[in-house]
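CO-FOLDING WORKSHEET

Operator: S.A.
Ligand of interest: zinc ion
Run index: 395
Mode: holo prediction, single chain
Checklist:
[x] sequence pasted
[x] SMILES validated
[ ] output reviewed
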Amino acid sequence: MALPVWDHPEPLAVDSAPRPEYGTGSLADLLPTLAAGMGVSGTTAAIEELTPADRACVFLIDGLGWEQLRAHPQDAPYLHSLLGSSRGGTGRPLTAGYPATTATSLASVGTGLPPGAHGLPGYTVRNPATGELMNQLRWQPWTSPRPWQPYPTVFQLAHDAGVHTAQVTSPAFENTPLTKIALSGGTFHGRLSGEERMDLAAEQLAAGDRSLVYTYYSEVDGAGHRFGVDSDTWRGQLAHVDRLVQRLAEQLPPRSALYVTADHGMIDVPFDEQHRIDFDEDWELRAGVALLGGEGRARHVYALPGAENDVLVCWREVLGEQFWVASRDEAIEAGWFGPRVDARVRDRIGDVVAAACDDVLIIASEREPKESAMVGNHGSMTPAEQLVPLLEVRS
Ligand SMILES: [Zn+2]
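OUTPUT RECEIVED:
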């Protein structure tokens, strides 16, 4: 009797993942381009089509991907009026960088460096000094921020060059390590409401002959995680932020440019076992694994000593049709984290890195109950989560 021949599709090739456009069109290229336009030394105008402005404001809308924005013209009429503009540099996407997650992206924005250099390459990563997982957003457990991310922020470089710089965001972020290493330089202004932030951002923009201002809104992301992209709550948040952008745009002082962007997009993942693979329930995926880091769509897997290759082979076999599964070296070589990875950052990256290609997640129902219940997710390299808007308004 002949044995059945299984049709076993090849796992996704590591280099088939759409690598972020580091150096030409990624989030990390935005602030250096704006600062270079103001004559700040040590910065490069990497995004060629942006016209310099003496005063620039970056408004970062957490979680508002390019594809989700484009799919909702009726909820965001003002933002949509900026999409099709023919003015140079407006209405195009940037790539967030890998992984497409808030801590990583905010560090890319503020330092002007890709993740492999700034060293926040995930939502949670292993701290090589302690062997523990560290949450990069909440900075838990605490570790000294400066050795972790030693580079100056673009705000600091601009401030040192005499540019008026300011961050206008939630008061809760005033003294956080993430703010310190990614978004400090100049003055921090905490304001609770979006309207207050818009008004103050415009004021700060006018406060210097050259000025660089950052402002932020978080709730589009929160609504997407809880209720999904396209939920009533998400669309309500989109409509609200659309009015906020217009409010700021209408107050721009002369010689200003406002740039609207985001840290990542989002993708809804169905609630069934095919789409949500539970690490805590899967003995195959758990074999040889010391620590599970990252998040559902962008996992760092830290193997027990000596088990690195076994874990790679197993993860590739189990997940390789739905995830790009790479060894640390392969992911670095493929440029997922940028053109270079600093020596201090290398071991923060998993022995195995798994990035979702389909609408799937590796949840961990026991160790991450909250995250495992989220409707909308992000982290990987698909256009839905990787592409973020770059919209421009000039006064
Ligand atoms: Zn998020």
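REVIEW:
The two ends are 78 Å apart (CA to CA).
The pocket of zinc ion is lined by residues 63, 102, 221, 225, 378 (CB under 6 Å).
[x] output reviewed
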